[in-house]
């Protein structure tokens, strides 16, 4: 026992100095906004590993398909050749790919779909038809609606409602809303345990690579990331406390800006984050900044490049510690989700914050909940009722290195952080878009929808009209009534 204690003490003393130097180096580079580029080289190496794995999976699938397609047909081919009804088979077998299938990332994907989605029921009946994307499609749709009078001059038939019945069945089979609160499906295996579906025992090479990756992520990266995260949170708490004691003024704002970027830069190392910022000339300096919401780390991703004030729901536990630490150095707005009166006060505080040009830009996620980074859902109108420019930001994560989506109804914050720290890395792109100003006579709802479309287009995301709170609540009764009214208009004949 004494020998073991001696070995542990000697090992700790030998590793203490390198670890301290490593943490000090991270802090120094983060304060300068610099990086050695190790994480980007690490990501490039991972891409080569993924490509090698994809090729092995594709070869394995091709071999298994050839075996399944040709071996069982041996006896049948002999019988058909004997009857003289079969064509001779070529000696060189071709790749058995169906004419209705295509190959994506080494995985065969059937291109024929049973669900057509010609009619998708939306909260706004005017947007029901999926083809409304441009002026030509709108004209076509209007033509269909005008011609419906001639086709329904006759008596009502049961088949007249089949279009809506089919749309309802399609929505049940493939729900647009529910699918946005599940992990984004990958087309190929990224060698992570929780995405290991139908890829067991492909080859001994991939097995060895998977075992090596497991040891790297859980035995080296995970302990290192936990250490960096703990140090980063303590450093953030300490630095914001120091800034909080400085009197209000220009120096405090400058120091808060530098401290914020430095501390979040250190925390980004705990996730091996590789962030690429585009169009930095549009980086917000004041006013309101809105972005699509995938995860709580969205704040970290944006705060590594700029200083923001935050608005959001009060949390306990780990997030509560961070919220209280940030509130010491700069103005933030925290509210209780279930208090309607507090929401009114939040709007007033938001207007007051924006009216002061010395305050940092306030970061808002108008969706109000986390979406799986495949879509952008309805923006709440509250932040768009404040006069002033809106600075849109689009965030797109690369799911090949780890799933950044937080399913708050399934995982706690600590479970989510554990999953993030045992992933390969967090890789994402951030686009700063030009400021958008509310047009004269434009409602806050229309303004919010216009900003949402801009973010969805830049990030390559699907623009949905549905409210993200449907994850927790039932659809509004007025949505059903509007669909019934729209259907009655189609059948009304004078």
Could you please describe the fold and organization of this structure?
- Its main location: membrane.
- Keywords: Acyltransferase, Lipid biosynthesis, Lipid metabolism, Membrane, Phospholipid biosynthesis, Phospholipid metabolism, Transferase, Transmembrane, Transmembrane helix.
- One of its GO terms (biological process) is phospholipid biosynthetic process.
- This is Glycerol-3-phosphate acyltransferase 3 isoform X7.
- This protein has 494 residues and is α/β, with parallel strands linked by helices.
- The relative contact order is 0.11.
- About 13% of the residues have low confidence.
Q: Which structural class do you get from the secondary structure elements?
A: alpha/beta
Q: What is the helix content?
A: 40-55%
The topology string of helices and strands comes to: HHHEEHHHHEEHEHEHEEEHEHEH
Shape: flat
Total helical elements:
13
Q: Strand portion, in percent?
A: 5-15%
| Strand adjacency order, main sheet | 3-10-9-4-7-5-6
SSE order and pairing:
Layout: H1 2-32, H2 38-70, H3 74-83, E1 101-104, E2 107-110, H4 135-151, H5 162-173, H6 204-244, H7 250-268, E3 273-278, E4 288-291, H8 297-303, E5 309-313, H9 317-329, E6 333-335, H10 340-355, E7 362-364, E8 375-376, E9 390-397, H11 413-421, E10 426-432, H12 444-459, E11 462-463, H13 477-491
Parallel strand pairs: 3-10, 4-7, 4-9, 5-6, 5-7, 8-11
Antiparallel strand pairs: 1-2, 9-10
Please give a handful of descriptors for the protein shown.
10% strand; flat; 48% helix; two-stranded antiparallel sheet; 494 residues; seven-stranded mixed β-sheet; alpha/beta
């Amino acid at each position: 026992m004494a020998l073991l204690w001696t070995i542990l003490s000697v090992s700790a003393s030998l590793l203490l100095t390198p670890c301290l130097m490593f943490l000090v180096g991270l802090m120094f580079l983060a304060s300068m906004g610099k990086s050695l580029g190790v994480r980007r080289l690490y990501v490039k190496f991972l891409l080569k590993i993924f490509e090698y794995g994809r090729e092995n999976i594709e070869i394995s699938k091709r071999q298994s398909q050839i075996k399944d397609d040709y071996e069982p047909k041996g006896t049948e081919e002999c019988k058909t050749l004997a009857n003289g009804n079969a064509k001779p088979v070529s000696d060189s077998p071709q790749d058995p790919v169906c004419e209705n299938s295509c190959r994506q990332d080494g995985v065969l994907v059937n291109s024929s779909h049973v669900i057509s989605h010609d009619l998708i029921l939306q909260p706004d009946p005017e947007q029901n038809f999926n083809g409304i994307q441009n002026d030509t499609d709108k004209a076509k749709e209007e033509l269909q609606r005008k011609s419906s009078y001639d086709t329904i001059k006759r008596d009502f038939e049961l088949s007249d409602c089949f279009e809506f019945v089919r749309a309802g069945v399609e929505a049940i089979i493939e729900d647009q809303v529910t699918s946005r609160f599940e992990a984004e499906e990958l087309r190929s295996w990224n060698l992570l345990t929780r995405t290991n579906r139908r890829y067991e025992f492909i080859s001994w090479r991939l097995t060895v690579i998977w075992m090596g990756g497991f040891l790297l992520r859980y035995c080296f990266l995970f302990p290192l990331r936990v250490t960096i995260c703990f140090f980063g949170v303590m450093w953030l708490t300490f630095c914001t406390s120091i800034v909080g004691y400085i009197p209000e003024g220009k120096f405090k704002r400058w120091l808060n800006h530098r401290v914020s970027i430095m501390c979040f830069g250190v925390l980004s190392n705990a996730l091996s984050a590789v962030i690429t910022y585009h169009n930095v000339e549009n980086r917000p300096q004041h006013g309101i900044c809105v972005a699509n919401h995938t995860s709580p780390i969205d704040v970290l991703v944006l705060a590594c490049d700029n200083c923001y004030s935050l608005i959001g729901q009060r949390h306990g536990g780990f997030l509560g510690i961070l919220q209280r630490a940030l509130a010491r150095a700069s103005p933030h707005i925290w509210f209780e989700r279930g208090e309607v009166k507090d929401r009114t006060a939040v709007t007033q505080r938001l207007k007051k914050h924006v009216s002061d040009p010395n305050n940092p830009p306030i970061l808002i996620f108008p969706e109000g909940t986390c979406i799986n980074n495949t879509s952008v859902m309805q923006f709440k109108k509250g932040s768009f009722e404040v006069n002033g420019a809106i600075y849109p930001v689009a965030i797109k994560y690369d799911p090949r290195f780890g799933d950044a989506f937080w399913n708050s109804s399934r995982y706690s914050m600590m479970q989510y952080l554990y999953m993030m720290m045992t992933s390969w890395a967090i890789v994402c792109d951030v686009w700063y878009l030009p400021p958008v100003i509310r047009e004269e006579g434009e409602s806050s709802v229309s303004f919010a929808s216009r900003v949402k479309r801009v973010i969805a287009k830049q990030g390559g995301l699907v623009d949905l009209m549905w409210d993200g709170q449907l994850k927790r609540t039932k659809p509004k009764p007025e949505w059903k009534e509007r669909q019934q009214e729209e259907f009655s208009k189609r059948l009304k004949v004078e």
